[in-house]
From TrEMBL:
Lineage: Eukaryota, Metazoa, Ecdysozoa, Arthropoda, Hexapoda
PANTHER family: ENDONUCLEASE_EXONUCLEASE_PHOSPHATASE DOMAIN-CONTAINING PROTEIN, REVERSE TRANSCRIPTASE DOMAIN-CONTAINING PROTEIN
UniProtKB keywords: Metal-binding, Zinc, Zinc-finger
Keyword match Zinc-finger: yes
Protein known as: (apollo) hypothetical protein
GO molecular function, one term: zinc ion binding
Species assigned in the record: Parnassius apollo
Length: 194
């Protein structure tokens, strides 16, 4: 294999001719003649899912603490997914593929209807396809008020977390199927419903 080369001469080692190929695997990474990393990323994703299946009994057990599941994921699965990534010329589509894979794994690890994940100081909640963002970090009577969204739908949520912000004790989602009215501020300071 030669990267971006038009030289078609064959390579000989002694009396043997080395077969020309478009890609090959070296130390777990897939090298491509075009210099692209698509095959390498797909191979990393496949390897990460294989490793995920090996530890499925631990990370999908509802009796396991969320923090321990996160540690197992970070120490066993994520390194397999990102192996060799220091040398990748990453594009946005590659970043998106890795993000989708990671989110799918996390959804399977936790209850598919309710996910709590402490990650870099932020708590991310997902419930029934909605993504929740802490709405200003309001702590109200032992709970946290969250904003949630799913596509164009919006809702408000009131979530009560445990002391360590790892376990959801109670969740109340207020969702209105009808769109909330939108308002525009006019030059005189009044608001007009659109």
């Amino acid at each position: 294999m030669a990267c971006n080369s038009t030289d078609l001469t064959s390579l000989r080692i002694g009396d043997d001719t080395v077969e020309r190929t478009d890609n090959f695997r070296y130390l777990g990474s897939v090298l491509d003649a075009s210099g692209d990393i698509d095959r390498d990323i797909k191979a990393r994703i496949s390897a990460a899912w294989a490793k995920w299946r090996e530890v499925t009994g631990v990370i999908c057990d509802p009796k396991m603490p969320v923090k321990l599941k996160g540690q197992v994921y970070k120490t066993i699965i994520r390194p397999v997914l990102t192996y060799g990534s220091e040398a990748w010329p990453v594009l946005e589509r590659h970043r998106q593929l890795l993000h989708v894979t990671e989110m799918n794994m996390l959804r399977w690890m936790y209850d598919p209807h309710l996910i709590t994940l402490a990650q870099s100081g932020k708590v991310l909640l997902m419930m029934q396809g909605y993504t929740f963002h802490k709405g200003g970090g309001d702590r109200v009577a032992g709970g946290i008020r969250w904003r949630c969204s799913s596509g164009k739908k919006r809702c408000n949520a009131y979530v009560v977390l445990s002391e360590d912000d790892q376990t959801v004790l109670k969740a109340n989602i207020n969702h209105n199927d009808h769109e909330r009215p939108s308002y525009v501020q006019m030059s005189d300071g009044t608001y007009v419903k659109i």
